[in-house]
Write a structure and sequence with these properties.
CATH topology of the largest domain: Aspartate Aminotransferase, domain 2
Bound molecules: pyridoxal-5'-phosphate
Shape: globular
Low-confidence stretches: none
Helix content: 40-55%
Number of helices: 16
Strand order of the largest sheet: 4-10-9-8-7-5-6
Structural class: alpha/beta
CATH superfamily of the largest domain: Type I PLP-dependent aspartate aminotransferase-like (Major domain)
Distance between the termini: 25 Å
Radius of gyration: 22 Å
Oligomer: single chain
CATH architecture of the largest domain: 3-Layer(aba) Sandwich
CATH class of the largest domain: Alpha Beta
Mean pLDDT: 97
Length: 455
């Protein structure tokens, strides 16, 4: 499979590139897929093989890999003003305009926006904002952060501490003061005989018990993805946000919606919080914000938090935080165009059009005796592989079932992602119905092939 010549792309990738979040046995066996360019929702590798990327790159490249409007917006801004910062009271005109746009499309009446280079940094920044304003308000002990098991909030030391995945223990994380409550995945964590409503009530009760045990006045914030993404595409159980928000309100704990994946259309609305009918205190955005065409994240503060951080900053005459490339003019110009492309050029509408077909395709594949459940929302979904459907027993981990399925898909020209024992699909918003058929057809063949090998 892999070309082992010393100057092959596979060998060269191995030699000096440290692979992140990559299954090394797969790399040793098959080599890296080295990509040169893209065409719509397809990417093309150095061997001129084409792959339908059913993961939109990493959830973000929803307009495909060669969108003329986005490329033109980037080129135009590089011609006009290719770089600047947002320190010392200076910022680009594009930055001013993007902040206006983000507040306009947000669920907030007004607010403030702060820019980062990534989603991780946006979560980090949000935590620092909470620490900053609590300190200024005379509550320096209010520092703990609550997130959920299986959540994904990033990889910096703070955002990795928020991420509720076991792999962070190899870094000695989480840091102290980062607390993880239960994952609202009813199919996996619901008890025998427990209804979904009872399960949600149990999750809410557990959250309140945790808050009381930790001390309500020590907790700075609660962060949640509307649909957990990298945790395995886990939509909340029925009524989850309606059950937890009053508890957070009762103890004065801000609810921060990490919309890095859900934001800008993925769940069928502009925001995931819209889909699940709650209004958070702040929104974390990245990924689709620039359709992946520039590294950028944003913290979008609602009215209350914006006023509080402003007051805290006034007291010491500045907010001492920022990245060199915060509010980069090219990133902002691309984000303005990406928001327009998603919201006004038919992409968001296509998500809504495709969703019933996507759900039908997922349902059909979930009839396979080795698929325990399909789950998802809008144009994101997962198929959970199981050894035994009735008992929900997973396959032996040593079989690497999901990696094998993903590799079989790659061989057939389809990129999809193994996550635990699930296969994740989150195709670009520009997908056509024919491309959706191609995606499900190739995945179905891969499932049949691999389950025949391991069952
Ligand atoms: C990807 C992701 C992040 C981290 O964003 P990076 O740009 O990779 O740092 C944070 N939160 C969620 C929900 C994500 O999906």
């Amino acid at each position: 499979m892999r070309d082992d010549a010393p100057n092959s792309w596979e060998s060269r990738a191995d030699r000096y590139s440290l692979y992140g979040f990559t299954d090394l046995p797969t790399i040793h066996d098959r080599g890296a897929v080295v990509i040169t360019h893209g065409e719509g929702p397809y990417v093309v590798d150095v061997h001129n093989r084409r792959y339908l990327d059913a993961n939109s790159g990493l959830w973000n490249m929803v307009a495909g890999f060669d969108h003329p409007g986005l490329i033109a917006a980037a080129k135009a801004q590089y011609d006009r003003f290719p770089a600047y910062h947002a320190f010392f009271g200076r910022m680009s005109d594009q930055t001013v305009m993007l902040s206006e746009k983000l507040i306009e499309v947000s669920p907030f009446e007004s607010g403030k926006v702060f820019y980062t280079n990534s989603g991780s940094e946006a979560n980090d920044t949000m935590v620092k904002i909470l620490w900053f304003l609590n300190g200024a308000e005379g509550n320096p002990q209010r520092r703990k952060i609550i997130t959920r098991v299986n959540s994904y909030h990033g990889v910096t030391a703070v955002s990795a501490s928020m991420t509720g995945k076991p792999y962070n223990s190899v870094f000695g994380l989480p840091l102290p003061g980062f607390i993880h409550v239960g994952c609202p995945h009813y199919w996996r964590f619901g008890k025998d005989g427990e209804t979904e409503e009872q399960f949600t009530a149990r999750m809410a009760k557990e959250l309140e018990a945790t808050i009381i045990m930790e001390g309500p006045d020590t907790i700075a914030g609660f962060f949640a993805e509307p649909v957990m993404g990298a945790g395995g595409v886990i939509p909340p159980s029925k009524g989850y946000f309606q059950a937890i928000q009053p508890i957070l309100k009762k103890y004065g704990i801000p609810l921060i919606s990490d919309e890095v994946i859900c934001g800008f259309g993925r769940t069928g609305n502009t925001w995931g919080c819209e889909t699940y009918d709650f209004v958070p205190d702040a929104i974390i955005s990245s990924k689709v914000l620039t359709a992946g065409y520039f590294p950028m994240g944003a913290v979008i503060l609602g009215d209350d938090l914006a006023a509080r951080v402003q007051a805290a900053a006034e007291a010491i005459e500045e907010f001492p935080h920022g990245f060199t490339a915060s509010g980069h003019p090219v990133g902002c110009a691309i984000a303005l165009k990406a928001i327009d492309v998603v919201m006004n050029e038919g992409l968001a509408e296509n998500v809504r059009t495709l969703t019933p077909l996507f759900e039908a395709g997922m349902k059909r594949l979930a009839e396979n005796p080795n698929i325990g459940e399909w789950r998802g929302k809008g144009l994101m979904g997962a198929l959970e592989a199981v050894k035994d459907k009735a008992t929900k027993t997973p396959f032996d981990a040593s079989l690497s079932v999901s990696e094998r399925i993903a590799n079989a898909c790659t061989d057939a020209g389809l990129i999809c992602r193994p996550l635990g024992q699930a296969i994740v699909l989150c195709p670009p918003f520009i997908l056509t119905e024919a491309q959706m058929d191609e995606m499900f057809g190739k995945l179905e063949s891969a499932l049949k092939k691999v389950f025949a090998e391991v069952a």
